[in-house]
Amino acid sequence: MIALYAITFNALAVTPTAYGELSSDMFADSDKCSQCHAIAHDQWKGTMHYNAYEDPFYQKEVLAASNDTQGIVDEFCSRCHTPIGVVSGEIPPVGGANLSAIAREGVQCDFCHVISVSNGTGNAPFVVSPGNIKWGPFDDSKSAYHESEYLELYTTSEYCGMCHDVTHPLNGLVVDDTYTVWKEGPYAEEGVECQDCHMTSGITKFEANPGRAGSGAQKREHISTHAIVGGNAFITEILGEDKYKEMAVERLKKTATLSIDAPQIGQRGDNLSLNISITNSGAGHKIPTGVSEIRQMWLTVSVKDGSGKQVYNTGDVYDNGTVGNAKIYNTVLGDAQGQPTLSFWLAQSILEDNRIPPRGTVSEKHSFRIPEDVTYPLAIEVTLQYRSAPQDIIDHLFGKDVYEVPVISMTEISTNIYENEETAAAGAADAAKPSTPGVGSLGSVTILLCAAYFYMGRREI
Q1: How far is CA 286 from CA 201, 243, 292, in A?
Q2: Are residues 196 and 299 in the same domain?
Q3: In terms of domains, do 107 and 19 share one?
Q4: Of 75, 93, 65, residue with least CA distance to 17
Q5: Over the stretch 219-240, which tens digit does the pLDDT of each residue have?
Q6: What's the mean pLDDT when you consider all of the chain?
Q7: Pairing of strands 361-369, 126-128
Q8: φ and ψ at 275, to 5 degrees?
Q9: pLDDT at 427
Q10: Would you say residue 450 lies in a domain?
Q11: Does residue 83 have a cis bond before it (omega within 30 degrees)?
Q12: What is the residue range of the signal peptide feature (predicted)?
């Protein structure tokens, strides 16, 4: 049967491991795995997978969902956040009163590597077979501690798609389409798997990571990394996982690109228009993705004149945490009354989907009037911003001023508008002048000191 799983897992009609079917003591503690797989364990510990259950936002949200649905979604939500807790019957209650220490490890080592088959994608249809056999992506692995078996599933996006595609358990509404969008998009067509971007040293592309899967194992050209970072720089910050916060920020910064179509010359009193385009240049899924009804991505557009006076501005975050006058790129879910809701468990429809698909481009038009008293040139600065959740949701769940949701600048672009062709040409010439890297006031002083030292040295000779 093991060989059958390894060859034809997609074709098998199997029943996912059910609630309470196993016990948590059948799974190995991750510290035991670290004795041979120290590097992979160190990469995983502290990640969002590691903190899938302990994530404080998840705990607040799942408790609200449980209360709103009289417990109907308890097992459903927990199946991806504490899978051992579900298959061992330790959930509910979702508060974790009956949860063992190993189930609190979230998506942990042994659980992931005893998945022996999948019954499709979405809503966690995994089959787990805890025991001495550990499954993985290599067909020639040998271990002195446990048996190793190859399973094709571990090399494909379908493995990730078990949890990273979610359909409402009661009405069939798709509330997370990360896998589906990849499957229907250009990356899947080109054979780029989720692991190629999220389990390599590269950020938005494959980059080989030579090494060994464990102590004493053979050296390979590529070993999958286990940080598996997305864009969550908020919860990682709360939990003090600064390494993973910085990795999330780096990933966000390499996800999209901007372009501006703007006139180079504008006269006082003119009404000008800017066409700003956002391209999803680095993600194989839509941006944002996941629980995209609470994600927020938007443009901050600022136009200032030569004296620093604000001429046009949109997309700033106000003191109360709201975003001013900007289009928000996310999903808008509708409840039973057709009103927007941020609680996906109450959703019955999708009112809007404003996200940007893989390699897709969307454009915004911004218009403003050049004041009569303007000082040239006009400086246009555009920034693509992102945050994991609206500030008011966090204030509601945790209390006001407890946590500030970080706003991440994903990418930015700038240009100038001049008064006439002569000043525009001069501005273009200044921009084209080569600069000596590192030469500011400190750099100039350093160069002078070096020159003086060299001169004095030659005099002594």
Answers
A1: 22, 25, 9
A2: no
A3: yes
A4: 75
A5: 999 999 999 999 999 999 999 9
A6: 91
A7: unpaired
A8: -110, 115
A9: 81
A10: no
A11: no
A12: none
State pTM to two decimals.
0.89
Region 72-87: mean pLDDT is: 96
Q: What is the CATH number of the domain that holds 403?
A: 2.60.40.10
Residue 120: count other Cβ atoms within 10 Å of its Cβ. Answer: 15
Which tokens belong to 198?
A: 């999220």
Q: Is residue 247 part of a domain?
A: no
Q: What are phi and psi of 34, to 5 degrees?
A: -65, -20
- If asked whether residues 214 and 304 sit together in one domain, one would say no
Q: Is residue 225 part of a domain?
A: no
Runs of H (alpha helix) within 170-270: 178-183, 186-189, 194-198, 235-238, 242-253
Q: Which domain holds residue 414?
A: 255-431
Among 66-70, 213-217, 324-328, 457-461, the range scoring the smallest mean pLDDT is: 457-461
* Strand-pair category, 378-387 with 349-353: unpaired
Task: Respond yes or no on whether the N-terminal peptide bond of residue 169 is cis (omega within 30° of 0).
Answer: no
Instruction: Please check whether residue 348 is in contact with residue 336, taking contact to mean a CB–CB distance below 8 angstroms.
Output: yes
Whether residue 195 is found in the same domain as residue 289? no
Residue 207 shares a structural domain with residue 272: no
The two tokens of residue 278 are 């956002």
DSSP letter string, 268-306? TT-EEEEEEEEEE-S-SS-BS-SSTTT-EEEEEEEEE-T
Give the number of other CB atoms < 10 A from CB of residue 103. Answer: 24
Look up residue 392 and give its two tokens: 């008011």
Same domain, 202 and 59: yes
Q: Which residues contact 130 (CB under 8 A, 6 or more apart)?
A: 22, 26, 27, 110, 114
Say if residues 23 and 130 touch (Cβ distance below 8 Å). no
| Both structure tokens of 221 | 């050209």
- Give the gyration radius of the chain's Cα atoms: 27
Residue 392 vs residues 258, 375, 398, 405: alpha-carbon distances, Å:
28, 38, 10, 10
Q: Please give the Cα distance from 69 to 345 (Å, whole number).
A: 8
pLDDT tens digit string along 264-283? 999 999 999 999 999 999 99
Does the pLDDT at position 131 exceed 90? yes
Q: Note the pLDDT of residue 458.
A: 35
What is the edge-to-edge ordering of all strands in the sheet holding 349-353?
A: 340-341, 331-334, 349-353
> Could you give the number of structural domains in the chain?
2
Check pLDDT > 90 for residue 8.
Answer: no
